[in-house]
Design a protein that fits this description.
Layout lengths: L2 E5 L3 E2 L5 E8 L9 E7 L6 E7 L4 E3 L7 E6 L4 E6 L8 E9 L1 E4 L3 E5 L2
Parallel strand pairs: 2-11
Antiparallel strand pairs: 1-3, 3-8, 4-5, 4-9, 5-6, 7-8, 9-10, 9-11
Length: 116
């Protein structure tokens, strides 16, 4: 059974860097056929797909993101991470990591607030 767990700071100040980690169990991240993505939901708004990383390590991003974004992985820890630079208050959201392979697996989500 694939399980995902997000971790990271709950509060970040504007202009700082937000780093979130997703710890995966039940499947190895390099496994063929899986993609690993980050999705967020701002308060009162719908889900927004941010980007992801493939089993071969290549990453891809939504062109609508305003803050510079990087998605990477650590296969030794079976984790993948999101880094959002120069955050703004509009980056306040619940952040989810997901695993896709025919079906979509979700983490429980983690609240991030950008505020001074």
């Amino acid at each position: 059974q694939v399980q995902l767990q997000e971790s990271g700071p709950g509060l970040v100040k504007p202009s700082q860097t937000l780093s979130l980690t997703c710890t995966v169990s039940g499947v190895s991240i390099p496994t063929s056929g899986y993609t690993w993505n980050w999705i967020r939901q701002p308060p009162g708004k719908g889900l927004e797909w941010m980007g992801g990383i493939r089993g071969d390590g290549s990453s891809y991003y939504s062109p609508s993101l305003k803050s510079p974004t990087s998605i990477s992985r650590d296969t030794s820890k079976n984790q993948f991470s999101l880094q959002l630079n120069s955050v703004i208050p509009e980056d306040t959201a619940v952040y989810y990591c997901t695993a896709g392979s025919g079906r979509l697996y979700w983490g429980q989500g983690t609240q991030v607030t950008v505020s001074s």
